[in-house]
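Lab notes, practical 5.
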Amino acid sequence: MDKVLGIGNALVDIMTKLPDDSILEKFSLKKGSMQLSERDFAETINKATEQYEKSQSSGGSAANAIHGLASLGAATGYIGKVGNDTFGEFFSNDMKANSINPIMLKSNTDTGRAIALISPDSERTFATYLGAAVELSENDLNAEQFKGYHYLHIEGYLVFNHALMNKAAQLAKENNMKVSLDMASFNVVEANLAFLKEYVKNYVDIIFANEEEAKAYTGKEPEDALHEIAEQCEIAVVKIGSKGSLVKNNGMVYKIEPFKANSIDTTGAGDLYASGFLFGLVNKIPMEKCGRIGSLCASKVIEVIGSKMKPETWDYIKMNF
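Output from the prediction step:
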């Protein structure tokens, strides 16, 4: 089985279930977006919501996808940077406990955290303090870290560090790896459009985008966006929420039907879709079934708070794809 290496912002997710959207309005947070914040702002939001139900897990987009892949049985590794603190220790231990090879670099800066605010309609909004995560640089990367892996999965949130993104992709290509990119967030795409277009052209083989990200990237609605993206890479995936997803590869379009789900929290839905899809790819499974595995993983993760699922849920997924 091919091995998958992830690289991203190593964050501890603090999931907070909101009774309404008044907190979003109070702190001028655009619903459904990811907003970078200073540590004090993130802590202020965390404190302002301390009376609500909360849970904690290791996170970050690529880390979630790698967790999902490992839970499905894939061989995985992860590169990220954390602080010398309890959050950093929590993150590293969680990786090891899930059979992921952690390539964790250390910093004296606090470990990053993402305050995930979950609205009653299950949409989530992030106020993210990157902390040590943002200190991951191109100088932290070397060819040895990439050896033995066949796919590199990059989260779009790293796009603010162009040198890091370029170095990661260059090392991957030197090791004959396929590069998979998750677009991350529509506002991230909008802010880095020119760089992303060039990056995709030079390095990317597989693109994951939801319909908002696809529109930010192409200016088009899902199906037209899919065709444009597919002209720039080997495999294009556009996720359209409750309507399922669209996949294009070698001129063929696959319409992937969604699985029914009782949505509680959409955190990790896109990341876990990537987990399932990439698991299919590393096992040489037909393209349409890759999409179905991704869709099944996404449908199950939105039924829980956060991006982590119980072993019995993973057992169910493995028996039903």
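Observations recorded by the TA: Residues 18 and 162 are 35 Å apart (CA to CA). The chain has one domain: 4-10+59-108+134-320.
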